[in-house]
Amino acid sequence: MSQSLIVFEPSGKVLHQVNNKISPFNDLIYSIVNDSHTELNPGFYTTLASQKRFYALKKAGIYAAVYLDVVTTLDSDKVRQCLLDVLRTYTVVTEEDETDSLKLTKLIDYQFNQLTKLKTGAAVTEKAPVAEKSTKPEPKEKAKKKGAKTMRKWVNGEMVEVQESSILDYSEGKGDSTDAFSGAEEAISVDNSNFQRRDDLVLVSELQDILGEESDEDEDAPKTMTSTFFGKVSSYFGGAADINDVSKKFYDQLISKNIAPPTATAILDKIKANIGKKSVTVTEFKLVLTEELTKTLTPNVSTDLLYDIKRNSAGKKRPYVISVVGVNGVGKSTNLAKLAYWFLQNNLNVLICACDTFRSGAVEQLKVHVNNLQRLNANSATESKIDLFEKGYGGGDHVVNTAKLAINHAQEEGYDIVLIDTAGRTHSNAKLMAPLKKFGDAANPDKIIMVGEALVGTDSVEQAVNFNNAFGNRRNLDFFIISKVDTVGDLVGSMINMVMATRVPILFVGTGQTYTDIKKLSVKSVVDMLTR
Ligand code: GDP
């Protein structure tokens, strides 16, 4: 089967490649240079050459491109999303540490494998819309037509034809006019089987399968002891060995899973101190490490949050206020919308407050989410309501005033929860971080949730610490939501980095781009992944 992926500069210089097959891409580069390709979306090209279908996506001056057998039928939207993920991965990892080619290869290989699995119809992390499970209110003319339908949309000031999409990527139109967010017309895919019912509560299920997926090559191979890290290290030492030597092997393993070097050192120093002897077997060491990692990740908080909110509603105090913070592009508004959907399923009334009054397009982006959620809610058996509260754009006290007005409005109109979106900001820029304290003091949220990306490695420590400290001495973050876990395979170390640095628990992980793509963390499977 012929397929490959590269990341390259407009000059033709290849920055990263999956497989060694670069030469076929000459046909694609030729078509781009000679303008003989088709532009499917702005910056997203396709061409056909030498029995291959090529796709290329250009963003921030670099291209990611794939080719697949010409007989392959794959929704170009899925290809585009994969290339977007790949470019983002490339940028994040190389900005963080341009020498970490192993991490880059692992992440991009994983993303490419996910795409090629879609092609072969194998089980994949990305769910195809499932007709019988979907509660989407399909307009009759759209029902049953999958994938290839095109629609018109304003993007960057021009009308373009795009493929109908069920994902929640409204970031394309950021910074444009409201029309860019005409996604409200699109079909919405949700899979309520991601939730479980217990008594009268709808609960988010535990993450089981996604993280454990293996790459294509490994899929059929039985998991023997010698194929795992643990097996290899056990046979390397043969029996008891110097604890520092054993620790060194585990250090390399933790680093390879995206755990930041200082975090890995801190964990392993603690393990060595706990064991307290010079000689140790790999089994003993792993046992103590497993216990420590499990303890670090364990708090099971999601059910408590729901009870907390329900209790608050019964007490008829002010609405429960949750604000979401994080750096730009990590998935704040998407995951805020996922929370809103979950709350609606629990018959709670939700007011979403647009407090990113800074970035042009942010309010409209939330409007799309709220429209989608209203449509979904109208077609479900719930008795809840959702609306958007916004006062447009502005600086200074505008954010704080908007939040206060929203909370008052919610109280008057019988909303149980106010979900406040905040502007994304660079965690290392003190000037941008400072307003968070003022916002926290004025809105006094019941919970502050930071959305962090699973993709980020070493930088996740500083991100988590800076956001945790941003609200002053008396206030911390309450939870993390770790987004895009579906894009990192078993490189799950960022979770450990963030939790270790702050002791803030993980509420949920984001596993995709639909409103039901949130999961509770399975501590056991994450710890297994880090130590097996
Ligand atoms: P914000 O700028 O932080 O508000 O980020 P957005 O909510 O606009 O999300 C940025 C991009 O990340 C969008 O394309 C989302 O669809 C995507 N995204 C968010 N969460 C996830 C997730 O859990 N998995 C994947 N694959 N994509 C996600």
Automatic annotation (TrEMBL):
This protein's record includes keyword Signal: no
Topology with respect to the bilayer: Peripheral membrane protein
GTP-binding in keyword set: yes
Keywords for the protein's UniProt record, in alphabetical order: Endoplasmic reticulum, GTP-binding, Membrane, Nucleotide-binding, Receptor
Compositional bias ranges of the Basic and acidic residues kind: 129-141
Protein location: Endomembrane system; Endoplasmic reticulum membrane
GO MF: GTP binding; GTPase activity; signal recognition particle binding
Database matches in SMART domains: AAA, SRP54, SRP54_N
Residue stretches making up the SRP54-type proteins GTP-binding domain: 505-518
Region (Disordered): 126-148
Highest taxon, organism lineage: Eukaryota
Gene Ontology biological process terms, A to Z: intracellular protein transport; SRP-dependent cotranslational protein targeting to membrane
CC per GO annotation: signal recognition particle receptor complex
Membership in a protein family: Belongs to the GTP-binding SRP family.
Subunit structure: Heterodimer of an alpha and a beta chain.
Protein name: Signal recognition particle receptor subunit alpha homolog
Organism: Candidozyma pseudohaemuli
